[in-house]
Fold this protein.
Amino acid sequence: FMSTLGGKITGSLMTERQKAEQQEQQEQARVRQEPEEEDATMKAAEGIVHTVSGGQHLSHEEKKKAGPLVHYAFGALAGGLYGGLAECTDWTSLGFGTVFGTLLFAGVDLIGVPVFGFGPSPTEQPVAAQATPFAAHLVYGATTDLVRRAIRAAA
């Protein structure tokens, strides 16, 4: 529970950062008169709805609303996983959660997103494009660990 809460809090912060970044990209696309691009969470939301509903699809506006929900839920699940692992193993909390954040970034952003077709592979992007997401995952791991430790100390 402790780390699920930490993951939810941190996931919320990451989602807000992601939304601000998307708004800037959408504004730039609008100025260049390009269509809005769907991010990985929007594509994941579409895939979930399509699978669960037996074939229904989301409109672009619905995907924009559902994408952050996917991000919040995934952040909470990852935080819960972190908490469980941190209680059972010593390696999980190495670097105060930053090792976990790094592994999460590698497993999800670098491997999972391209494998599921939610975005390009790392080799199709400049290295600089991964700097902000990597930093966000480091902050996610550290904040999740901080919340876990604070709640554990208070219990």
Notes: The chain has a mean pLDDT of 85. The CA atoms of residues 20 and 26 lie 10 Å apart. The two ends are 12 Å apart (CA to CA). DSSP finds five helices and no strands in the chain.
